[in-house]
Q: What sequence folds into this?
């Protein structure tokens, strides 16, 4: 009832254990706390919180306009309703290395399982857009070292994201990944990889967990879980997929309202009220206080 029954420490420890096992973990993107709870109910391994989704939720483009307080607050809201570990997109760390350090501690306090810091310049842009610019090796390394030095819980996962593949090619991405691991990164997120062979090359280059980003309409082909497992990936995210699907359904429903003036023909596409109440666990609140849930929802 209310929030997760699993402690933050246990979530982080479990995430570390599963990453160490070498299995492939599936982290769909949650666009709000309720969707995070649905991800857990459907048996996934964790929740991903996308910076692009957080920006879109505020009606903003993904170009570094969100603030640390906005990201940490939304991350806290999502992480605390699920027993699954949540990994959050911390963009470039919201500033210089000292800002990166504060970012990590704020996200630790918010109950996240981990975060990734990227090597784009400020202001950043979506990882699958053209024209990205990345910082030099020294700046990228300083960001990760600051994150590692600031961490208080050793199980908080610090992931380094590199966007250099799109800007300078695969060899540069392999070199950057190695440097970021040497700087202390627990895992690597190689953005905008184009082929399975590129993922395999990254797997051969570094000996830490690797994340594959399966975002639609981007630079990467949409590989299956089995394909990514076969080339040694440890995490796969679908960062914006659930938001895209939800917004697509919302647009179609609004069009139907405009065309027919009602939604009677859309009922089979909606989550039933009974299912929503079940997901919200109304009955647990009833056990706590019988005055809260003293009715029956008919299907």
A:
């Amino acid at each position: 009832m209310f929030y997760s029954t699993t402690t933050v420490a246990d979530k982080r420890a479990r995430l570390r254990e599963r990453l160490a096992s070498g299995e492939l973990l599936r982290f769909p993107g949650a666009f709000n706390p309720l969707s995070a709870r649905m991800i857990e109910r459907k048996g996934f391994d964790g929740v991903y919180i996308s910076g692009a989704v957080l920006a879109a939720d505020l009606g903003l483009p993904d170009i570094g306009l969100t603030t640390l307080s906005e990201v940490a607050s939304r991350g806290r809201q999502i992480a605390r309703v699920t027993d699954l570990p949540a990994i959050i997109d911390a963009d470039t760390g919201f500033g210089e290395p000292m800002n990166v350090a504060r970012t990590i501690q704020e996200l630790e306090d918010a109950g996240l399982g981990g975060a990734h810091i990227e090597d784009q310049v400020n202001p950043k842009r979506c990882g699958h857009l053209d024209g990205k610019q990345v910082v030099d090796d020294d700046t990228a390394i300083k960001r990760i070292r600051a994150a590692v030095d600031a961490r208080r819980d050793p199980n908080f996962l610090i992931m380094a994201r590199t966007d250099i593949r799109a800007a300078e090619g695969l060899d540069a991405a392999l070199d950057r990944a190695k440097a970021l691991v040497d700087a202390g990164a627990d895992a690597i997120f190689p953005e905008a990889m184009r082929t399975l062979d590129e993922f395999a090359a990254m797997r051969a280059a570094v000996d830490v967990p690797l994340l594959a980003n399966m975002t639609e309409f981007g630079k990467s082909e949409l590989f299956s879980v089995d394909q990514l497992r076969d080339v040694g990936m440890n995490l796969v995210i679908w960062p914006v997929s659930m938001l895209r699907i939800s917004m697509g359904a919302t647009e179609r429903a609004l069009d139907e309202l405009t065309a027919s003036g009602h939604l009677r023909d859309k009922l089979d596409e909606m989550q039933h009220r009974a299912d929503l109440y079940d997901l919200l666990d109304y009955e647990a609140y009833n056990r706590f206080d019988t005055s809260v849930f003293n009715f029956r929802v008919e299907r």
In short: Strands lie at 25-28, 47-49, 86-89, 114-118, 157-162, 187-190, 211-213, 235-238. The longest strand covers residues 157-162.
